[in-house]
Amino acid sequence: MLKNSLVYLILFNLIQFWSVEIDCFQPSQRYLHTATFIDNKLYILGGRDKLDTSIETIGKDFFYRDFSTSSVNFNSQELSWLDLSNVNIVPPHKAAAAVKGGVNNDILFLYGGNSTDNDMALVYTFDTKSNSWSIPNITNMSGEEEFSRKAFLTGIIDNGSMYLWGGVEEISKYSVNDMLILDTINLSWRKGSLVNTPSPRRNYGATLLPNHQIIYMGGSNYTNITLNEVYLYDTINDSWDTKTTSGIIPSSREGFSVNLGLDGQRVIIFGGIGVNSTDALYVLNLSDFKWYIPKVSGTIPESRNNHKANVIGNYLVITFGQSTKTIESDVLFLDISNNDEYIWTENLSGSPSKSKVICVIIGSTIGGVLLIIGMFLLYKWNKNRRLRRNAVHPPDVEQEIKHKI
């Protein structure tokens, strides 16, 4: 009877496990992280969760969200992630730069950042196919012994090269305006032109344009820099140009996001340090470099800074960051498919959320396997019990068995 009860108890627990949804990783508040979109997965790495000068253990966090399933709706309030922190070899850090690169554009390249670990490498790579980190051996093609680490900068990828302009130099602690270029295919370094380069700055905004030019704007060098000028770096010709902007020019800012619109003809900026909600969202028309405030509907969120923003499908997906009152742990969705009106929404499809479906599938699969194992064990136990009862025994043993039964 004891064995029978134990088997039924195990079976009951397996059924309970199968019916309960497995909880996926729920990230805590953070800012100054990286967010890299590779093969429909958004990878989040590092950052900090305190307003003091320390780097907490959150800087070791590494997780992702798969946005590839078109039939799944994603809700910003229930978005769940899959944790990869157990395979992470990168020390806790903040304010690094990350892009996708490599021969097949499926490798995450992480450069620089601030860390309390003196042994942190200058560059790390994460293979998204094998889920493994490594430290690449990179050749220096500029004749210098070693490139210095920088932080508070933006990495831009174009034709397999990662462009790393400006930021804060680790040794001097000053803002710089040099251009480091990492060939992510041949794993080699070089430097870009300094002719007509913008003034030194950190925490600026940047994005790649369709014509292989990188647009840089804003940032800080002791004081915030105005956006009445933007700067264009030509990755093909290694040259700089300056454009004067007009229209409704945004306030000076740093720690904001810059993304190319879906039509490739406009640039969208959001947030920044000291920026309020009514001053957070602007668009720069690239045909005449004129700023304007777009028409927006939906529930307008509080502005934030030192977040990250990625264009995923028709949406600007804004992850975490710091608002005026707190550090955020959520995600914002801005529908940018209609240039006449952007829409803040909690759902990428506008439908009821099914964001946890992946976790449910994983939980159901594991629970189903365990349930089958439990049923098999129960079947074997009952079969053996029947065999024992039907076996021929000597008279004294048979009487003892009947007595026990």
From TrEMBL:
Pfam families, sorted: Kelch_KLHDC2_KLHL20_DRC7 (PF24681)
Record keyword Repeat present: yes
Signal peptide: 1-22
Keywords: Kelch repeat, Membrane, Repeat, Signal, Transmembrane, Transmembrane helix
TM segment ranges: 360-379
Protein name: Galactose oxidase
Record organism: Glomus cerebriforme
Source organism phylogeny: Eukaryota, Fungi, Fungi incertae sedis, Mucoromycota, Glomeromycotina
